[in-house]
Amino acid sequence: MNEHVKKCPIIANHIKVALVGQPNVGKSMLINSVSNAHLHVGNFSGVTVDKTEVLFDYKHYHFTVVDLPGTYAFTDYTIEERVTKEYLCAQDYDIIINVVDSTNLEKNLQLTAELFTMSKKMLIALNMSDEAQKEGIEVNAEYMSELLNVSCVKVSAAQKTGIEELINTVVKIYEEPKVDPKLIFSEAVEEEIQHIVSYLQKHKYEATNSYRNIAINLLKENKKTYETLHDDPIWIELQPILIEASQHVELHHDTDDIKEALAEEYASFNRGVVAEVVKVKKPIKEEKTLTERIDSLLIHPLYGIPIFLFLMWGLFQLTFVLGAVPMDWINLFFGWLGNAVGATIGNDDIRSLVVDGLIAGVGAVILFVPNIIILFVGIALLETTGYMSRVAFLLDGFFHKFGLHGQSFIPLVTGFGCSIPAYMSARILKNDRDRLLTLFIISFMSCGARLPVYVLFAGAFFNESIAGNVLFAIYITGAMLGLIAAKVLKMTAFKGADEPFVMEMPKYRLPSLKLVWHTVLSKTLMYLKKAGTFIAGATVLIWFLSNYPHNLELETSYAHKIEQAQSKQEKNKLTNELASKGLQQSYLGRIGKFSEPVFEPLGLDWRMAVALEAGLAAKEVVVSTLGVLYALGDNVSETTYSLKDAISKNISFASAVAFIVIIMVYLPCFAASVVFTREAGGIKYFFYLLAFTTITAYVLAYLAYHITLLLGY
Amino acid sequence: MKKLIDCEKGEKVKVAKLHANHDLKQRLISFGIMKDANIQVLEHAPRKKTIEVKVGKMRIALRAEEAELIEVKAL
Ligand SMILES: Nc1nc2c(ncn2[C@@H]2O[C@H](COP(=O)(O)OP(=O)(O)OP(=O)(O)O)[C@@H](O)[C@H]2O)c(=O)[nH]1
Ligand SMILES: [Mg+2]
Q1: Does residue A47 have a pLDDT over 70?
Q2: Selection from A314, A331, A445 nearest residue A374 by Cα
Q3: Residue-averaged pLDDT of chain A
Q4: pLDDT higher at A276 or A640
Q5: pLDDT of A4
Q6: Ligand 1 in contact with A370 (CB < 6 A)?
Q7: Partner residue facing B60 (CB), from A111, A292, A504
Q8: Which ranges in A176-222 belong to alpha helices (H)?
């Protein structure tokens, strides 16, 4: 009977905090610095597109911090903004931390003013205080807290300063009763608010909210407040008062849009607050900021695009040249490992499983880790420096011609890393038509998992000195095909008016090494983890399917022949023949043979066909399957086995071109297809995508094969 | 009536009126492009298809079609 002896003595309090703010103010980074999370951080608007919860303990409190997509105002402009709005309105949280950029307070406070009407406990985190200091901007946090009647805490997510004070303030606010923030409107509007308030007072309207808050919400045409009051008997009298009040406000602002009028009210209030609490130390010179100076080069009307193309070219060049060095080591290592491990295993079948299956397959995937890392570094730099939005700006005109939105560039570039986050990030597009269109062509942007196939084939068929260019050409061709596909879709399936393009251009930031390191590391680990689990499993399956069933008759007859053979050469030839015959009658061989007629017009043999089919599960499997299939056919050669050589020996150039074209265009992997279906909003879209990519891939590969043949290769 | 798109590179003006539809107007306002805001044209993309402007401390990219809808006046 000692059940409750060891009960935990601390009954922790649970505080749920929602982080709200405009895009790119450092919400995600702030969460990373208060907890051990590694949320995705980038220097452009729309990095976070879905809510994420992070848990951590501090003193004797449990914290749940919710990272929300940034939102400029309380509208449903884009899906991600809708996520934020819906979360805030559902009110399943205790405290709002409103994160603002100290270097751009006036604009940021626009959202703050709207949050004031949420009637939730809140505080303001004055983030980027390090940057503000550098720019000579001094914010008086205490005075600001006093003016707004909301606690304001200076923090820097990058330097991790003020974090402790921030959490302590959260705890304090959590324990204390709620206070109403101060927001003063112009006299004309205050008068109207007062009218409504006194009406509510007169009728002793029962509410948890303050009357002032209700009045403001009514003026703002807040749906929820409207609905609540609409069913109340006082509505009959209140409505005319409200209409009159709105008219007065609109008249005062010379507009017919109450929201515009209120926005102007907020703006002038904020201007007042900023004038009081912000001191700019350095004299405001008419000098250009660093960002403007860099911009005058990078988004130059003439040089902008060539510079971008040059940087891309450089990246692929690096991918190839720099990646080749460790690749040789990895190749040697797996060759050695295969031999060493193989020598210790007596059983033929098990040895083949481990050496030709696991080691050859997984090794083929791991071989490309250096290339993948370089690619990820490139993408991380694009994301964290602020260049991303510039390219979107540069390409908007060009994209527009193809029926795409400039901001589509962001999901499309993300697609070069992996299609899954790319599909998510298409949420930053306001219009559903634009978004769907972008979703459909994301798979044309070759993801990181397809890079190994390209590197392998480029290396197999081209001299090292130009293989980097070939790689670049493959990516550019893929992207161009995507644009053409977009044009076709825009003219047929997604007809409609163009959406406005309005996008913030963040200032350039030098990304910290740590940030880039973490981004690249986590993606690389994911790749490795996938190689060790999913890919390894798929490889074993492929190995099994390609080794069974055994054909004893065939084996004995060859064993006999090999014994009789005179020269070593002849022996080798016979062994190879046996292997390839055995492969052909295996399960996989039969599957391959079954689908061969489909692939024959494209110049693909059954092994390539099987690799492509396996690639539907994950694109990495293409390489590992090739690794297994060509390792099996080749396993008697004495030299260290190299997949690259096997490819160049066994596959004609025209077939290789057709193969690459299919890889470029056909259906993304299984996991990506699932996310695509979810983001597009229905299974029917998956079938559209399947039909669209399959037909396109087939036709293009057919053309590519025959044109290459005609050209005499 | 002068429009934002007519401004030269480097020119500073004041917003007089937004002629955009409701959604776009909300968007522009939330970016700080509202009546009486000061605005400066920073950069033109090729053939003035897209422009970069500065409002307060914020740099914003706009397409020509949107810049058409913003009426401006001299400071
Ligand atoms: N100098 C400095 N930079 C910061 C600070 N906090 C964030 N940043 C940078 O600001 C950029 C935006 O950070 P994020 O955390 O992605 O911003 P976010 O608010 O989550 O953005 P969205 O998810 O798009 O809404 C990144 O480039 C960060 O490196 C800070 O305190 N100081
Ligand atoms: Mg974020």
Answers
A1: yes
A2: A314
A3: 87
A4: A276
A5: 43
A6: no
A7: A504
A8: 187-202, 211-219
Q: How many CB pairs under 8 A join A and B?
A: 123
Residue A287 — pLDDT band, cuts 50, 70, 90? low
Indicate the length of chain B as a whole number: 75
- Identify whether the C-beta of residue A506 lies closer than 8 Å to the C-beta of residue A389: yes
A3 — pLDDT class (breaks 50, 70, 90): very low
Q: What share of chain A is helix, strand, coil (3-state, %, to 5)?
A: 65, 5, 25
Rounded distance from Cα A24 to ligand 2 centre (Å): 7
- Which member of B26, B60, B66 has the closest CB to residue A73? B26
Give the distance (Å) from ligand 1 centre to CA of residue A505.
13
- Label residues A288-316 b or e (16+ Cβ within 10 Å = b): eeebbebbeebbbbeebbebbeeebbebb
Q: Which residues of A touch B21 (CB under 8 A)?
A: none
Q: What is the largest CA-CA distance in chain B?
A: 29
- The ipTM assigned to this model is 0.93
- Closest Cα partner for A404 from A378, A441, A375, A369? A441
CB contact under 8 A, A73 and B34: no
Task: Report the candidate in A679, A658, A178 with the shortest Cα–Cα distance to residue A439.
Answer: A679
Confidence of residue A8 (pLDDT cuts 50, 70, 90): very low
The CATH T-level fold of domain B2-74 is: SH3 type barrels. (2.30.30)
Of A107, A67, A111, A101, nearest in space to A87 by CA: A67
Cβ atoms of A442 and A427 within 8 Å: the answer is no
Task: Name the residue in chain A with its Cα closest to that of B66.
Answer: A500
Ligand 1 pocket check for A130: Cβ under 6 Å: yes
Cβ of B30 within 8 Å of Cβ of A75? The answer is yes
What 3-state DSSP class applies to A684? helix
From the CB of A51, is ligand 1 less than 6 Å away?
A: no
Beta carbons of B59 and A291 less than 8 Å apart: yes
Q: Does B16 touch chain A (CB under 8 A)?
A: no
Q: A1-15, A139-153, A295-309, B49-63: which has the minimum mean pLDDT?
A: A1-15
pLDDT in tens, A17-26: 999 999 999 9
- Give the gap in angstroms from C-alpha B61 to the nearest C-alpha of chain A: 5
Question: Taking the CB of residue A669, how many other CB atoms lie within 10 A of it?
Answer: 22
| A161 or A546, greater pLDDT | A161
Q: Are A357 and A268 in contact (CB under 8 A)?
A: no
Domain ranges of chain B: 2-74
Question: pLDDT digits over A327-385, tens only?
Answer: 888 888 988 898 898 888 888 888 888 888 888 888 888 888 888 899 889 989 998 99
Q: Is the pLDDT of residue A638 over 50?
A: no
Q: What is the sign, positive or negative, of the torsion defined by CA atoms of A207, A208, A211, A217?
A: negative
> What mean pLDDT is predicted for residues A508-526?
88
pLDDT digits (tens, 9 = 90+) for A58-73: 888 899 999 999 999 8
Q: How far apart are the first and last CA of chain B?
A: 14
Asked whether the bond before A601 is cis by omega within 30 degrees of 0, the reply is: no
Shortest-distance ligand to the CA of residue A70: 1
Q: Give residue A229's pLDDT.
A: 84
Q: How many helices (H) and strands (E) does chain A have?
A: 33, 9
Do B32 and A77 count as a contact with CB atoms less than 8 A apart?
no
Nearest-by-CA chain B residue for A299? B45
A13 beta partners: A61
C-beta neighbour count of A364 within 10 angstroms: 28
Rounded Cα–Cα distance for residues A122 and A20 (Å): 10
Dist CA A377 CA A369 (whole Å): 12
Q: Distance (Å) from the C-alpha of residue A501 to the closest C-alpha of chain B? A: 6
Kindly state if the Cβ of A70 falls inside 6 Å of ligand 1.
yes
CB contact under 8 A, B46 and A301: yes
